[in-house]
Amino acid sequence: xxxxxxxxxxxxxxxxxxxxxxxxxxxxxxxxxxxxxxxxxxxxxxxxxxxxxxxxxxxxxxxxxxxxxxxxxxxxxxxxxxxxxxxxxxxxxxxxxxxxxxxxxxxxxxxxxxxxxxxxxxxxxxxxxxxxxxxxxxxxxxxxxxxxxxxxxxxxxxxxxxxxxxxxxxxxxxxxxxxxxxxxxxxxxxxxxxxxxxxxxxxxxxxxxxxxxxxxxxxxxxxxxxxxxxxxxxxxxxxxxxxxxxxxxxxxxxxxxxxxxxxxxxxxxxxxxxxxxxxxxxxxxxxxxxxx
Length: 292
Description:
By secondary structure, the chain is α/β, with parallel strands linked by helices. It has helices at about 5-10, 30-55, 70-80, 100, 105-110, 130-135, 155-175, 190-200, 210-215, 220-235, 250-265, 280-290; strands at about 10, 60-65, 90, 120-125, 180-185, 240-245. Strands 1-6-5-2-4-3 form a 6-stranded mixed sheet, with helices on both faces. Helix 2 (about 30-55) packs parallel to helix 11 and helix 3 (about 70-80) crosses helix 11 (about 250-265). It is globular and about 80 Å long.
């Protein structure tokens, strides 16, 4: 089944509204059919990853952003479960520490980039600097930036500059062989509420819940505005955003897997071919067969 990429893609230069994306879309599939399709796609992903690792010419960076309880952790676990761990690396970004605050906002993310041949997954990413920081501009004060000694000084020009920095950062990466995929897992406010209630009701899931989640939920509209701005400002031909419906976890995982698989296939990578003078396969075979 081919992915309806246009349904998720935030097309560069075209302004989108978050409310126009259906959080409950399921691709006209039922859950069982979706699981069967996901199993097939995971086989393709494993094959594509092996070629990526062997060719050692490209890297893939996959970013996940979402509201709490949208299913980022589960999507990462299910999508990457069939891949070789040697070719993957996952970073989950929390609040910056003192060392990270002493550098520019992209520094810690640059350090976490995947090497050539690898798939890197960032659970939250450099976009936190234009999402949570836009909803809570007081966090910017910890960066000790010149000319921004108070929250009142953080204006539209500040955010315009930060979006530009992100676009330039991602352009530099793609120019140097990094393929970037950015996924916003779009969950509805109603579904988030139910997932929070499920976490509260299940002792095994209590650890996933924090009272801070409720405080951030109260700022839902501000977060949607911040996401909408980020999507419109930073979805580019070289680093596109995809808005993935997240009310049905099984479909979220399928859609993400399909897009990653299609992107890897589109790289048209091949296994490296060794020069005859580098390794004489026939001679090596003869030597092995002649062993007593």
